[in-house]
């Protein structure tokens, strides 16, 4: 499907909400005598799939059974379900029930196969006046080939009747092509695919532009499960919708099974189609947040409508579905035989493609950046995965030059401001021959995309255009009731001008703080604020802010890129603060312990050995190694000419800087620094020396080298915490 976009500068401040395009569907169902009982049940279920899966409430569906007319009182076609809308759940339920009229005909009712009459009836229904310009789709379900040899209305000669009917089919197909009626044949069993191919090729074949999957084609399937999937695919492609992978499981009696289905971000409308086969099976639906949704009514920003609960096929139609994984829960009561159940999502994106120019009033020869992005009803699509498979293009046309293509990319290069942000940009030079009107047409094509056509119309600037402006509005995340600040920069080479601000394609919950302002001559800046309403729903806000001059011409514009998020609950903020605190402690505590350990090692005196001398240069008379693990200081005294360890009294020794040892006498007075090889005098005519085993490779200052057992490898206080 192609979404061609036009934002008229003179349009209203916000366009009408986008809706999926309605369709008019006629399902032609073979009732010939060659059908079996399971075949009829299969056709009924297939017809219900169409009736219940339709996305637009403005669509219409008719179901027509056909056989042949071989004698008086027989009719080749039976209208099981006249053309009916699908706006309400009651409408859809009515369609779901009326397909029960479909039956296998016997010979007295005309049990042959008249495709010509069936197609003629479908076209007659399609010709009913239509004020919605609905797309026209015919589904042909059949298990056989054309056989009207017993139908006198095709001529007296029985041998010529099939030939005459084929000629009528050819005429009807030409009429179908002119009236843009798609024909999607679905055959099963022994159906002739060659004949069905002719039906598909004869009708309208470009419902979704160049989208290959949407080209009508015939399908021939073997099993009922294949019928369901094939028809759903044909239905989705025919109305330019998307279809997700079907999920199937086995449901035992008195048991429950969950089926996980996906609704993509790009979907604005969807149907979860559940084939449960036994009407006694109950179905519940849960959104990606785990909340069970109602089967009728609204929840948050979504609208729900279920139909088919009392039948073998059930469908939940959702407007503005929450994207992500949905859970479909099926529960079987006791006494119901084991069933194969399935769920499939059919979806469509009713999107607006917003187009913007870096300079809405360019001069001939100037370069202009053209920017294009997609919006749902509620916000802008920025997820690159959601946009994968879509194609963004633009073309420029105007007075004085031929139409030119504009190459759009989301690579972050050239005019594109950021890679992967959902904004596709390209640059084009306004031809020097441009003289007046200028227009840009943006298009987005791809599976499941439905949109409108709204070209962006402007004019090249003339000599009298002496005012330029630029809107600065950064991306922001705000709470409901918050504000986003922006700036309008104006260069005015003429008299003071009155300028107007307006919002385009922005939800009604968002407003501007300023509507008009005066732009003085010269350069000026003007502030603006986007005010987010207190009732604004959660999620992205799209659209744009435009600046208009006194004539209503757009002179500047910028996309709105705001994400509305509810305030964080107090308990969650406290939890976040606690987690941050724990993280800081987890990082800081080991560092603090390491620093403490390093300080303790630096102060540890255990590798110091003290010597007592009567005179320097003579052998020591006493020695003592400092204790381990008793803190950075230790005390000792001299008793009977020997060094004796004490606790809290006497001399105090501790490490200083480098190889220095600091000693205080019993009165607390600091003595001169003690270093290896340089003894200091003590009262009583003795001298105190020291050796430090921490100095690697150094010879001891006193006495011979003795094996020294270093004790710093032993556990230190705090080691057990690291």
Automatic annotation (TrEMBL):
Annotated ranges, domain VWFA: 24-251
UniProt-listed Pfam families: VWA_2 (PF13519)
Keyword Membrane found: yes
Keywords recorded for this protein, A-Z: Membrane, Transmembrane, Transmembrane helix
SUPFAM superfamilies attached to this UniProt entry: vWA-like
Superkingdom to which the source organism belongs: Bacteria
PROSITE patterns: VWFA
Region (Disordered): 698-722
Residues passing through the membrane, by range: 574-594
Entry annotated with the keyword Transmembrane: yes
Full protein name: VWFA domain-containing protein
Protein species of origin: Nonomuraea jabiensis
């Amino acid at each position: 499907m192609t979404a061609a976009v036009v934002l008229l500068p003179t349009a209203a401040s916000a366009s009408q909400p986008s809706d999926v395009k309605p369709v008019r569907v006629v399902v032609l169902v073979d009732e010939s005598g060659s059908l079996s009982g399971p075949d009829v049940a299969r056709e009924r279920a297939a017809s219900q799939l169409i009736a219940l899966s339709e996305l637009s409430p403005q669509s219409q569906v008719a179901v027509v059974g056909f056989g042949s007319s071989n004698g008086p009182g027989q009719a080749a076609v039976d209208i099981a379900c006249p053309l009916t809308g699908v706006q309400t759940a009651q409408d859809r339920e009515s369609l779901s029930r009326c397909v029960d009229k479909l039956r296998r005909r016997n010979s007295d009712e005309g049990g042959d196969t008249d495709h010509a009459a069936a197609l003629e009836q479908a076209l007659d229904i399609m010709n009913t006046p239509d004020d919605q310009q609905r797309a026209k789709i015919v589904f042909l379900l059949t298990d056989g080939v054309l056989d009207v040899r017993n139908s006198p209305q095709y001529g007296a000669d029985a041998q010529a009747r099939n030939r005459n009917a084929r000629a009528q089919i050819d005429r009807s197909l030409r009429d179908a092509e002119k009236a843009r009626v798609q024909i999607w044949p679905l055959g099963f069993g022994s159906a002739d695919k060659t004949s069905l191919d002719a039906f598909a090729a004869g009708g309208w074949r470009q419902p979704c532009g160049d989208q290959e999957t949407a080209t009508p084609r015939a399908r021939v399937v073997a099993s009922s499960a294949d019928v369901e999937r094939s028809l759903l695919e044909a239905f989705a492609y025919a109305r330019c919708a998307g279809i997700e992978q079907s999920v199937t499981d086995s449901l035992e009696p008195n048991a429950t099974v969950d089926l996980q289905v996906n609704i993509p971000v790009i979907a604005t409308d969807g149907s979860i189609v559940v084939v449960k086969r036994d009407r006694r099976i109950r179905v519940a639906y849960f959104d990606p947040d785990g909340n069970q949704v109602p089967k009728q009514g609204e929840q948050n920003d979504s609208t729900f409508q279920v139909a088919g609960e009392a039948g073998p096929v059930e469908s939940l139609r959702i407007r503005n579905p929450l994207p992500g994984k949905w859970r479909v829960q099926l529960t079987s009561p006791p006494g119901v035989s084991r069933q194969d159940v399935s769920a499939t999502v059919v979806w469509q994106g009713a999107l607006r493609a917003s187009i913007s120019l870096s300079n809405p009033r360019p001069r001939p020869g100037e370069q202009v950046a053209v920017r294009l992005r997609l919006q749902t009803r509620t916000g802008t699509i920025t997820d690159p995965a959601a946009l994968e498979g879509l194609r963004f293009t633009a073309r420029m046309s105007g007075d004085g030059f031929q139409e030119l293509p504009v190459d759009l990319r989301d690579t972050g290069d050239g005019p594109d401001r950021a890679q992967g942000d959902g904004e596709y940009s390209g640059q084009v030079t306004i031809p020097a021959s441009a003289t007046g009107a200028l227009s840009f047409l943006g298009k987005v094509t791809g599976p499941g995309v439905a949109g409108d056509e709204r070209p962006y119309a402007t004019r090249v600037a003339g000599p009298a255009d002496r005012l330029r402006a630029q809107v600065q509005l950064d991306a922001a995340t705000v709470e409901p009731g918050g504000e986003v600040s922006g700036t309008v920069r104006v260069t005015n080479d003429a008299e003071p001008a009155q300028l107007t601000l307006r919002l385009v394609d922005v939800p009604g919950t968002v407003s501007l703080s300023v509507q008009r302002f005066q732009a003085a001559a010269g350069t000026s800046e003007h502030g603006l604020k986007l005010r987010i309403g207190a009732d604004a729903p959660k999620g992205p806000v799209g659209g744009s802010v435009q600046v208009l001059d006194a004539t209503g011409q757009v002179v500047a514009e910028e996309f709105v890129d705001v994400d509305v998020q509810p305030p964080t609950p107090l308990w969650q903020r406290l939890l976040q603060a606690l987690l941050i605190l724990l993280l800081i402690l987890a990082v800081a505590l080991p560092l603090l312990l390491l620093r403490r350990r390093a300080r303790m090692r630096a102060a540890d005196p255990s590798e110091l050995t003290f010597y007592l001398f009567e005179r320097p240069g003579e052998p020591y008379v006493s020695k003592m190694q400092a204790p381990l693990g008793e803190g950075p200081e230790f005390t000792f005294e001299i008793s009977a000419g020997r060094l004796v360890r004490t606790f809290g009294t006497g001399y105090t020794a501790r490490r200083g800087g480098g190889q220095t040892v600091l000693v205080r006498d019993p009165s607390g007075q600091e003595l001169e620094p003690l270093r290896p090889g340089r003894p200091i005098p003590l009262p009583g005519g003795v001298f105190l020396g020291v050796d430090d085993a921490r100095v690697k490779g150094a010879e001891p200052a006193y006495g011979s080298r003795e094996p020294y057992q270093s004790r710093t490898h032993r556990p230190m206080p705090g080691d057990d915490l690291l």
